[in-house]
Amino acid sequence: MSRLDPRAPLVLDIHDLSRRPGSSRTASRSVPAPTDLGTELLGVPADSEIELELLLEAVMEGVLVSGSARAEVIGSCARCLTELRRDLEVELQELYAYPESDAAEDEAGRVQGDAIDLEPMLRDAVVLTLPFRPLCTDDCAGLCPRCGVRLADDPDHRHDEENDPRWAALATLLHDGGSRGSTVTNEED
């Protein structure tokens, strides 16, 4: 396992808590957001500020980190593509287990040396909180499928009945009464 870079913004030194069950401390940090923190339509822009308020508690198995993260998310409405800007606050909680701990690996982060990496916990909390299909309003009508106008801006929007030129041959059959009983013959010379 590679060692964590102690200068990385989301890496915390836990030397003062390590192996001292019952001890705790708080941490308040403003850190730049990592890249790709979000979904395809909505996310925290890279390098924007994330405010962290954390409580670190030493327990027998490792260090329990709990608290909150606040950031602004930016994206697009899934129906009308309007820009969205929202404040997001997520609750955080993760056990960072000592390497020799019995805590299941898939349920806990790992202490590496005297440091922990908060990025995977933050990424999981943010991405799981974001809506899969963000909307500007719950009743967003979207875009007109024919011309692309935003329907919320023009609720009475409609198009006159126009015939698609690809169906013109069928339309002439309807207007001519159709030749239902006729057969098509192939005349060869």
Largest sheet: 7 strands, mixed
Structural class: mainly beta
The rounded Rg comes to 29 Å
Number of strands: 9
- Helical proportion? 10-25%
Distance between the termini: 82 Å
Low-pLDDT segments: none
The proportion of strand residues reads 25-35%
Mean pLDDT: 86
Order of helices and strands: EEEEEEEEEHH
Secondary structure tally, helices: 2
Q: What best-fitting shape do the alpha-carbon axes yield? A: elongated
Fold blueprint:
Elements lengths: L10 E3 L10 E9 L4 E2 L3 E3 L4 E10 L3 E15 L6 E15 L11 E2 L4 E3 L1 H11 L38 H8 L14
Parallel strand pairs: 7-8
Antiparallel strand pairs: 1-9, 2-5, 3-4, 4-6, 5-6, 6-7
Architecture overview:
The longest helix has 11 residues. The mean pLDDT is about 85. Helix content is about 10%, strand content about 35%. It has a domain of about 120 residues. It has about 190 residues and is mainly beta. It is elongated and about 90 Å long. The chain contains 2 helices and 9 strands, in the order βββββββββαα. The strands form 2 sheets. Strands 2, 3, 4, 5, 6, 7 and 8 form a 7-stranded mixed β-sheet that branches. A two-stranded antiparallel sheet has the order 1-9.
